[in-house]
């Protein structure tokens, strides 16, 4: 077996040094080298046999030659398998990846065309439904799939989170490209900030996960409200981009701002928690204004509030830019710049709402054995604030619901008319 391993290594080295060649040629060269070495050894052994036992050297040499002459079938097969694996790793990896991408794209195109046929059939049958173009179907499937797969590879999502993100992304993208732009900004910035200064966060947060590793529960608590609003938006006005104008399309505009508010709320809370916890400023509890340890639910800082404002603004900017890119009749509609201001206010107010719910309905305790803030009661935990009614995911969900329901109505009173 040792000889077989040496031959395999020799063949692999020769294959790599000479830039490849056919598998049969390399195996033949390796076996020929092994045969020459064994023939020399057999000849020397036969000569020694003739010296020590006259008349029997030829027989002994012949036996040695038969025993060590050429490689057997098992050796050739073993070497061939090694060569196949070697050439697969070095030569065919890129080809396999390319073919996989082509197959996936072909399947997605077929799915998109199938959806388009269904939408055309439904539009023809009912007469009031606007069909969705095959290009929109393809973009709605392909782009969320790429984002979800990259999020999984970078450990921003686990398996269930990637599937949940794919579903939410598909619904938002097929409904309105501006919805997708806002969601994309929230996901990218939140993922980057979650990984930012992770070593410090490990020492503060007892539930910190490397890279974030969001599950399907977290995905739907942050994206469930926007996904539902996107479905209602498609029922109301059909898929497509519209300017936000209360004087012309009140219900559809209200739903657009409601969805933007929910995403900006989640972005503002994420920015505040991910940036505020690693800064040196000491947080204060929002209900009593007492100083609390870093990581306490309901603790706020000036840095955190500014971060929440910027987080919501970033989502508003993404929505506004996509409006400029995809909406055609902006010149006869109300100004769209208030979208940016609305996003910033939704992020700030959403973070404040989240902090208040966290301070009152989410348990926070200081574990004396580790010095970390925990979200559940233990024998070593000293109570800081809140009651064990909601967890962090539920707090995020309720905060986004509150902002999505209340803020569009308030914005209607101040929104410019076209």
From TrEMBL:
Keywords: Membrane, Transmembrane, Transmembrane helix. It is found in: Membrane. Belongs to the TMEM19 family. This is Transmembrane protein 19. Its main location: membrane. The chain crosses the membrane at residues 102-122, 134-152, 164-188, 300-327, 339-359, 397-415. The keyword Manganese does not apply. The keyword Transmembrane helix applies. InterPro entries: DUF92_TMEM19. It is a multi-pass membrane protein. It comes from the Eukaryota. GO terms for cellular component: membrane.
């Amino acid at each position: 077996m040792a000889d077989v391993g040496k031959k395999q290594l020799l063949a692999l080295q020769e294959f790599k040094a000479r830039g490849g060649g056919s598998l049969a040629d390399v195996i033949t060269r390796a076996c020929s080298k092994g045969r020459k070495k064994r023939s020399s050894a057999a000849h020397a052994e036969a000569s020694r046999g003739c010296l020590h036992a006259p008349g029997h050297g030829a027989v002994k040499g012949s036996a040695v030659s038969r025993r060590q002459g050429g490689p057997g079938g098992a050796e050739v097969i073993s070497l061939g398998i090694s060569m196949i694996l070697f050439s697969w790793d070095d030569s065919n990896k890129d080809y396999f990846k390319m073919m996989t991408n082509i197959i996936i794209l072909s399947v997605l195109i077929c799915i998109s065309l199938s959806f388009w046929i269904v939408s055309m059939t439904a539009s023809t049958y009912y007469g009031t439904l606007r069909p969705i173009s095959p290009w929109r179907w393809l973009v709605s499937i392909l782009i969320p799939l790429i984002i979800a797969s990259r999020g999984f590879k970078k450990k921003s999502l686990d398996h269930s989170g990637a599937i949940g993100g794919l579903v939410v992304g598909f619904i938002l993208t097929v409904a309105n490209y501006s919805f997708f732009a806002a969601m994309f900004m929230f996901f990218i910035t939140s993922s980057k900030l979650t990984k930012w200064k992770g070593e410090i966060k490990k020492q503060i947060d007892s539930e910190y996960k490397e890279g974030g590793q969001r599950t399907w529960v977290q995905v739907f608590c942050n994206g469930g409200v926007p996904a539902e609003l996107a479905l209602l938006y498609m029922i109301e006005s059909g898929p497509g981009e519209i300017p936000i104008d209360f004087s012309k399309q009140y219900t559809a505009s209200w739903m657009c701002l409601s969805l933007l508010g929910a995403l900006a709320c989640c972005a503002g809370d994420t920015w505040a928690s991910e940036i505020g916890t690693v800064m040196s400023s000491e947080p204060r509890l929002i209900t009593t204004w007492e100083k609390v340890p870093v990581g306490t639910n309901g603790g706020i800082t000036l840095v955190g509030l500014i971060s929440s404002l910027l987080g919501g603004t970033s989502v508003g900017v993404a929505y506004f830019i996509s409006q400029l890119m995809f909406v055609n009749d902006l010149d006869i509609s109300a100004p769209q710049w208030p979208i940016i201001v609305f996003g910033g206010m939704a992020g700030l107010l959403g973070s404040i709402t989240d902090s208040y719910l966290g301070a009152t309905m989410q348990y926070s305790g200081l574990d004396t054995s580790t010095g970390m803030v925990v979200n559940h009661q233990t024998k070593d935990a000293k109570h800081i604030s809140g009651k064990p009614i909601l967890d962090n995911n539920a707090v995020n969900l309720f905060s986004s619901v509150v902002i999505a329901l209340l803020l569009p109505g308030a914005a209607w009173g101040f929104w410019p008319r076209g």
